[in-house]
Amino acid sequence: MTLDRRTFMGSTAAAAAVLSAPTVKAAGHGKPRVVVVGGGAGGATAARYIAKDSKGDIDVLLIEPSRTYYTCFFSNLYIGGLKDIDDIGHTYGSLAASGVNVVHDWAVGVDRDAKTVSLAGGGFVPYDKLILSPGIDFVEGAVEGWSLAAQNAMPHAYKAGSQSELLKAQIMAMPEGGVFAMVAPPNPYRCPPGPYERVSMVAHVLKETNPTAKIIVADPKPKFSKMSLFQEGWADHYAGMIDWIGEDFGGGNVSVDPDAMTITIDGEETQADVCNVIPAMKAGRIAELAGVTDGNWAPVNGADMSTKADADIYVLGDASAQGDMPKSGFSANSQAKVCANAVRGALTGSKVFPAKFSNTCWSLIAPNDGVKVGATYEATPEKIAKVDGFISQTGESSDVRKATYEESEGWYTGITSDMLG
Amino acid sequence: MRILRFSLSVAVAVFCTVAAADEFGDPTAGEKIYRQCKSCHQIGSAAKHRIGPHLNGIFGRQAASHDGFRYSKGLARVGASGLEWHAETLDAFLENPRAMASGTRMSFKGLKNPQDRRDVIAYLRGFSDSPANIPEADPTATATDHNLDPAIIALKGDPEYGEYLSSDCTTCHQPDGGDDGIPSIVLWPEEDFVVAMHAYKNKDRPNPVMQMMAGRLNAEEIAALAAYFATLDD
Known about the structure:
The complex is a heterodimer of chains A (421) and B (234). Chain A is of the alpha/beta class.
């Protein structure tokens, strides 16, 4: 069940009246309310776990503008032709069925004194605890010549959905022997292996449809996630196709011209047929509007994901600055469970268990050639710190790589049902 | 309906192959192949239900018909629609378990080599009543192999704590028992669950994700998870 605006405003007004006394458990009447902003891997998981585990003792409201959520994870497989767009699209119906009120609107402001979130559609929602999981936005002016206004000419496709479809369509329309250029982002950013899995999937689709095409990557970094695995795979599957220009060769000195469709790397201009610009990133805007960011990200306490700025506001996933965990869907899901347990404890007195985090990132280099990297983490007073980890090895057998890919398929089914019910 | 039609055509095809070859498999070779099965399915005089049901007397039995075992809905469905285990139906099932019974919890990709299937079926045949064509075989009980401290196995887990810890598992493993690419972990006997987790913890089993996840759990936490997952309904 999703609420239309009228029902929603009605229930909000009622809830506002009930919740006028902010102390929650002590008040003995009315239910405490958690508002979650953002229905991705962090927000949807937190909302679902709080609703499920509190068994109706906490009101959970999720604010998410999109009716269909396209996962960023596996969106490269869509670009590579291995998934349909519908395979990575999910609706919120089952989340609503597990007791979460889902409101499709933009959260446009947070009043920390009054403890309310204001909505683009008008009105506001009061909260006892606010969980922000807004994902990423792009740093303005990060790539010379590019702005959000140019995202149709030069897509980022780093928020999945229509941008992914646009990039895919442009790749399929490339002339024979054309050029696909990518501007890779500086650290830290969402999904560290993501740009390189994308290069692999673009190479895969071009190898099938346009084998004389070229791929150029301008990268401001000297090295990247799973670098030796990707480079080995590129040599094996796509020899001579991919030109990766790292920091040492001027990959960070880059500008683009979306009108002329040119990219200039260290002074050398190239005409591109497709130019995928992935700019530097920062926390989704609502975190900044709530005043919980410091620089580009929102610093949080590892024990419960509460922000350093406000003990009643939590930030999950990509938007948070937490320490050693990579910005990934798996990480956001893991952080959400720790946060849900802590928030529930704070509001209802339920038992709070010690924080444990984990992450695994699978990447696909070519069909049935999957690799993975993962680690476990714990909360220390300073940050979320890495405990133990592993990474796929170069030279693994094709059986191992195939099993790794199949495992990633299983993970996809697992995490999407863990998030959305 | 689709499943029935499909399995029928498979059965017919297989029947032809078996009839044409006019040979039964080699139970000695089958015993070796059965090693892939025995971590879940016991067979022989002391056999009990474990992760999967025991396989004594499987020939001629209706699928999903042991009262003392909780089957997946998928297998219960094909059993209810009349599937019986004979050489040809076992052959089709072993080739691709999920093609024949979608939703089965049997996390086994299947035996692609027809000779392997014939051999393992010949081995199974030795543990059923009146096995035709095969001399009476001595029942050999197979236990789950492990050398885990009995004190660890005896630990009684707290399912409530297990439920909290399980959120680490359900990022990948589906609580409804579904499995594609990642095996089901619900409704396992607690002992088998504990043995498997300690095997990962001690790096005796190979998957690095599981070695990492199990590596940071202590014996009580593993017992708690075993207790929780053993009770989950599918």
